[in-house]
Design a protein that fits this description.
Layout: E1 3-6, E2 21-22, E3 25-26, H1 27-45, E4 50-53, H2 65-75, E5 81-84, E6 110-112, E7 117-121, E8 124-129, H3 135-144, E9 152-156, E10 158-160, H4 166-169, E11 174-176, H5 177-182, E12 190-194
Parallel strand pairs: 1-4, 4-5, 5-6, 8-9, 9-12, 10-11
Antiparallel strand pairs: 2-3, 7-8
Helix pairs in contact: 1-2
Length: 195
């Protein structure tokens, strides 16, 4: 089994270097869509069965319908099944389904996880955690439950350590490196994080 990992598309009609608007989508957003399509093509070329997007598909909690449509259009061409979790930019609140990805919940090849979820591929467990303001507590509670070997954790948060610049350490969406390393005692072999 091969897995492609992607994060932080921040798909939006950004004003800076946005370019002309065509059918509700500016040039910069189209370029982001093209980059997403290229990532799908690379994943397909390498035989990936699944793609995990670790949040921030969109740059805001209420993207324009045309922006959602652009993502859905590109995602519909994906050969690998896309698994995604909401990131901090996608969310309106910590309530389930209160995020921009809700519009994608009925897509045929995109699975949106509104809360912690376990995926098992070839005996390898992947634990997915959408962004929430109490992410560390949510992860640690789930990892201490009776999970079958939580091999890898996928989440949306910055991981900061002693060498992280001060302006990055104080975000509300950060986890401390020492906490993440300690998850190894709970069976975690690796952590994949987007922010």
């Amino acid at each position: 089994m091969r897995l492609a990992i992607l994060s932080d598309l921040h798909l939006e009609n950004h004003k800076i270097l946005g370019g002309p608007m065509v059918a509700g989508v500016n040039r910069r957003a189209r370029h982001i869509g093209d980059a997403f399509a290229a990532a799908i093509a690379i994943a397909t070329k390498h035989g990936c069965d699944h793609m995990v997007i670790t949040g921030d598909i969109f740059d805001c909690a209420k993207p324009d319908p045309e922006i959602i449509g652009l993502f859905a259009e590109v995602a519909s061409t994906a050969d690998p099944l896309i698994h995604t979790i909401p990131g901090n930019h996608d969310r309106s609140s910590d309530q389930p389904r209160h995020h921009a990805l809700t519009a994608l919940c009925n897509s045929t090849n995109v699975i949106v996880y509104n809360g912690p979820a376990s995926l098992v591929f070839d005996g390898v467990s992947l634990e997915l955690f959408p962004f929430t303001t109490n992410l560390r507590e949510v992860v640690e509670q789930r990892l201490t439950e009776a999970l079958d070997d939580p091999s890898y954790v996928f989440l949306h948060a910055g991981i900061v350590g002693p060498d992280t610049p001060p302006f990055l350490r104080d975000g509300k969406n950060v986890l401390q490196l020492e906490d993440v390393v300690a998850w190894g005692t709970l069976g975690v072999r690796g952590v994949v994080a987007g922010d």
